[in-house]
Amino acid sequence: MGYKALIVDDNAVNATVISGLLNKFHVESEVALDGAEAIARRDLVNFQIVFTDYLMPGIDGIGVGKQIRQCIHDQGKDIPVVLCTANVGAAGLAADVETGISYILKKPVKVQELEQVLQRYVDERLCLDNSQSQPAVSMLNIPGLDTAYAIRQAGGERLYLNILSEYHKAIKETCERLRKYEQTNDTVNYRIEVHGLKSSCRLVGAMELANLCEYLENETKSKTPMDLKGQTAYLLRIYESFIERLAPFIKQEESNQEQESISKEKAKEQFLSIRRLLEDFELDEAEELLEELQQYKLNEAYKLCLDKLSECIGAVDYEGGIMAIDACEL
Fold first, then answer.
1. What is the CATH number of the domain that holds 168?
2. Of 147, 157, 113, 316, which is closest to residue 245 (Cα–Cα)?
3. Tens of pLDDT along 91-125?
4. C-alpha to C-alpha distance for 48 and 118, rounded to whole angstroms
5. Domain encompassing residue 303
C-alpha cells in the first residue's frame, strides 16, 4: 500500500525538508501553505498522517490539528497529527490543554525519530530506504554557509540542494514582508517571520543569520525592543546578498532537475544489460547504454555506480565495470 502525508507549513524550506525525508521511506507528500488551506481540503481522508508547523500566521499548528481531526472524526475516521517545532516546551504546554496532536517532533527533524513516528502511527514495517542514503561529506563551498553541518542535518547533498533552492526562491518575498512588518510595527507577524527565517537559515547552514533572527525574535517579545529598525536593515543586507551568492549553485541544481526521471526497474535493467555486454567484451555497445543512462535523473546510489562505471569503461577495465555494478544495490 502506498502512503501519503500532508505537510502544513507556510515555510517552503521546512516543507521541503520533511518531504525529502518522507521520500526516504517511500511516503508521498503534499503541502498546504497554511492552516486554512489544509482544513479546507476535501481529500483529508486520503492521508495517513499530517505534519504541521507550530507557529504560523492565522491558525497555529495546534488549531490545525484540532480542526483536521474533527473533520476526519465527523467522517468516522481518525488521522495522527504531528506537530513540528523547535520550541518543544512551549508547544507541549499548549498541546496539553488541546486535543488533536498525536506527537511533537523537534526541529531540525532527525530521520531516526521520523522513522519511529512513521512506524508508530502509520505502519510498523516502514523503514529507511538504504538505497537512497547519501554521503554526508561534500565538497560544496559556499561563502557564509556551513554546508558540511547543513548536509549532515539534511542526510545528504541531494536533499540539501533542494532545500537551498527553496531558500533562494523565498529571499525576495521574505525581505518584502519583513520590511513591511518592521515599518508598520507589526511585531506579531514580524516575530512569526523571523522565527521561520531562523529555521530556514539553520537548515542551509547560514548560522550568523540564524543567530540574528533568534535575537530579533526575542526582542519582539520585549515591551521595549531595542534597535529593531537598524538590526532589520543589517539582517536584510546579509540575507539579500545570498541571492547572488547562491545563484551558481541554484542554476546547476535546476539544470539537474530538468533531467527526465527513470524508474528503478528500468535503471536496473540498463545496468544489468551493460554488465552482460562487459562480460562479452562488447565495449562500444556498453558505452552507448552508459551514455543513455547518463541522460536520466538517478538516485544517489545509482549515480555513484554510474560514475565508477564510466571511469572503468573509459579505462577499458571490463572486470572493474562488472565489479562496480555488482557492488551497487540494484
1. 1.20.120
2. 147
3. 666 665 566 789 999 888 888 899 999 999 999 99
4. 10
5. 261-327
